[in-house]
Amino acid sequence: MENRSLVTIANHSREKIEYLIRMAQEFEKHPNRRLLEGRIVATLFFEPSTRTRLSFETAANRLGAKVIGFADPKVTSGTKGETLKDTIMMVSNYADIIVMRHYLEGAAQYASEVSPVPIVNAGDGANQHPSQTMLDLYTINQTQGTLENLNIYLVGDLKYGRTVHSLLTAMRHFNPTFHFIAPDELAMPEHYKMYCREKGINFVEHQDFDADTIAGADILYMTRVQRERFTDLDEYERVKDRYLLKRAMLSKAKPNMKILHPLPRVNEIEYSIDDTPYAYYFQQARNGLYARQAILCDTLGITLEEIINDKTIIK
Amino acid sequence: MSYYLHFTFSKYQNMKRQELQVAALRNGTVIDHIPSAKLFEVIGLLHLQEMHSSVTVGYNLKSKKMGNKSIIKVADKFFSDDEINQLSVVTPNVTLSIIRDYEVVEKKEVKMPEELIGIVKCDNHKCITNNEPMQTRFHFLGKERGTLQCHYCNREINLADVKLV
Prior knowledge:
Chain A is an alpha/beta fold.
């Protein structure tokens, strides 16, 4: 059987990304359907992630599927020493598809190799989080009308932030120019810069984070600078306020510019920005629903054509 | 200190001392130019401790090219390319001579395979391979890059830093 699991979108072709965006657009038009009626989706969260779990479970429920699973790893047999393989083999007897969040890197790849049913990676440690990347791409396309030739500014934790790394690799098909704004301790790792050079992706590194620097942005992708990432806490104290986005910094922003954030936000985007037309992070989160509906359907072998011709829409 | 784990034949006693470093092998494989520090890893990788035919190991031998080298001769054993290529992670520059009836009939070089299964340990302690009873799997990213990439967590490891399972 063809393995339809979604572990990463790093290797997805341009066509496949555009196909999934088209699918998600259909779900944005009509999110409520009975397309997955009779199917069972398991959500196995070996690491708590309320936001991602609610989004996947909502996607499944709005398509008529039933959801089983666990949200708290403390209730699973993993704590009794059961291997991941055994848990997956057990759950695959019950469910048609497994959405899995795991704290170990590579867990989703391994699960996809042993599982008789498709696996959807809902985040494996610091490694991959493809549904987040899909919703980011969807949102960029939705706000800019294209994915081509955009200036994308990545701000904050560019060292550990898997969302920015995945976005970087997924955007390689679309001739972007990336701008990296981060403290030295959390700078974009050298191997990602090497990746950019190999793939011909333009990138610029900035020291300052101010109105002039971000004036050219189409997308301003903010992430959180977390205290626990620093070995030198003095360094953290020095830089922590330097990467906060303040309303005054938007004075020179392009009219089409949108601010994205994978959430949760702490204080890195000033709350008064929420009322500006640039703020788009809550709509971005809503797009997670449509992107995940597309991912569930594609992983279960349902085609775009079937979704376009779907007669199960609940109006 | 140099020493042998196998005896040389008396008919070679008149030969020059240098030649004595390699006892004659009728049929089998000679693995030469092993950095001495890597000798025991090579033995482990090829599972020589499980062999029943005779194995001659020369350790800390003088070498013009390397200063100091080790050599292994395995009687009546012809390794597959897959077995040989495993050596590439620890000793990419060894040479292998295939011996038949005392003659070198073929020289083989070690080539880095595209994929290494169950050989290299991932140095990411949060990688699934270090937390689940399973085999590791690495992809070779090419000579220029000089790194292996974990199939599971995507961590890249420099060839010089490789640790075996």
